[in-house]
Write a structure and sequence with these properties.
The chain has helices at 2-27, 47-50, 54-67, 77-84, 100-106, 120-130, 137-140; strands at 69-70, 73-74, 88-93, 110-114. With 143 residues, the chain is mostly helical. It has a single domain, classed as Aminopeptidase, CATH 3.40.630.150. Helix 1 (2-27) packs across helix 3. GO terms for molecular function: malonyl-CoA decarboxylase activity. This is Malonyl-CoA decarboxylase C-terminal domain-containing protein. One of its GO terms (biological process) is acetyl-CoA biosynthetic process.
């Protein structure tokens, strides 16, 4: 119990530190093309400058994928496609796509969706009818 509380406390401290670092980044002028509310950063920012922001950016990405909705469904069209088809939001991969397009579209963060055959129909029905997303603990832990 103590270890999990300590881990949780450290995780919260890391998120706080990452948010402070994001604020410093934005105020330094390096983030002049960064729109915090929509998390848009163009690919001209070096990936090494993003590393200190890893925790907060993964948190923001997880929040975007799980909370931003249009008519109750995932706002992101790729997420909506996979969730409608019964996948679960499985994992976020830091710097999983460092191509110029990957950096421009998602700051290099790549999403994995997992299709578990025994859950596909159930997940699809819950999402389509109840607008309930199937989210793996890997992603929940980032929120």
């Amino acid at each position: 119990m103590t270890m999990s509380l300590r881990k949780s406390h450290n995780s919260q401290a890391n998120k706080l530190q990452a948010k402070k670092q994001l604020g410093s980044f934005l105020n330094s002028g390096s983030g002049k093309r960064f729109n915090y509310p929509s998390l848009v950063l163009l690919s001209d920012v070096e990936t090494s400058k993003l590393e200190p922001l890893k925790d907060v950016l993964l948190h923001c990405c997880a929040h975007y994928l799980t909370s931003r909705r249009q008519n109750g469904f995932a706002l992101n069209p790729v997420a909506n496609f996979h969730l409608r088809n019964g996948a679960e939001l499985y994992r976020l991969n830091w710097m999983g796509d460092t191509s110029p397009r990957g950096l421009q579209n998602s700051l290099g963060i790549m999403v994995n969706y997992r299709y578990r055959l025994e859950k596909v129909l159930e997940n699809s029905v819950h999402y389509t009818l109840d607008k309930r997303l199937a989210i793996h603990e890997n992603v929940r832990s980032l929120l």
